[in-house]
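Just wondering, does anyone understand these tokens?
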Amino acid sequence: MMIVDDEYYVKEGIKQTIDWAKYQIEIVGEAENGEDALNLAKILNPDIIITDIRMPILDGVEFMKKLRENEINSHLIVISAYDHFEYARAAIKYGATNYILKPIDNNELIETIQKVIKKIESERNFIDSYNSFKNNISALKLGLLREIVYGKVLDSQSIKETLSYFKIDSNNIVVITIRISNYDKTALTTNEHLYMLKDYITNQMLNNVFARISNSGICLEKDEDEFVIIIGLDGDTDTLYEQLKNELCYLMRKINRKFQNDNFTVAVGISDVHLWDNIFKAYREATFASNYSPLPELNIIGCARDKDLIGIRKEVKDALKMIVENYNRDITIDEVANKLHISTSHLIHLFKDELGKTFYDCLVEYRITKAKELLLSTNLKVYEIAEKVGYQDAKYFSQLFKKYTGYTPKEFVDYHTFAGELKDEY
């Protein structure tokens, strides 16, 4: 366990007033600010971190954000002298187990620690059992599950028995689809990187979703470039669903950073929470979402809302908002930097550091998102839509649209007319 607080007496109080050996916990490090704590966490990778929220140099919110960016999955317990809603929300956003107010109640801290220990044990046991189970899955059952997901088997008893076989016994389920596109299937190096990306996604889902949010789920490969993930939710489904969306948002950001030099487009869609026997409807919702209008939390531009970008630099938030407000005209990064009173080179660096994307990428993605909305909600011609989202050249717009969605504008409308009919039918 690691303790992070700029107040000496708080750190000493935590260390000295509780018999940590009794709970088989070793304090392996301590720090006075988020920057030192981050460097230490990279070396120690502790199971548990107790951290203050208000600290010099790098505060607790930024520290938790950096932990996630560096894929340090320590369990977090936040302590604070401030009963502040924004801080509490940030703690929840970054997966903290509890938000404890100072002066610290030792009984509350011990109770939280015991809860964390149980979670760690549960995660480790789940990962071991999941890997063992995965190696012994019946091909017949796997095929039946695919048939159920794709709506070819609608019998409730068969669905129940098959989900139970895959240890999904929850009444409520969520389906996630992850599609990889815009890559050269004939290139050997591309295929190697695709394998790395797929392996990365499955490991992230196992360690950060299945083990932490729900011990009930399965990750299927629909084909070489699409995943279908079924997750069972028990307990407070609203809270778990929010955690799940946050985790997917982080996954997208991490993919953007880790694979930013590869020519991949990754689209994520998530269904609403459904009863287990509506799995086909959930799959259709997730597919529809990933192809048309992903949830704002999974779209880096959608994240321009303050509540979804806790920890992101204000300059980047403001730049994203300027994209949202000015996407339909010729807007440049020089203009945005000038209005924000910072240099263009600094803003370029901020976008790469915070989002793993360029300003231009974000502008195009938002324009394409708005174009999708217009294609499905109006009878405007393609050249008219191109003009409305900031492009005077309809041919160039169509090329960009194809690059970012995998469809021409006409194909997109045809596909979603069909998908929408299916969604209504089921």
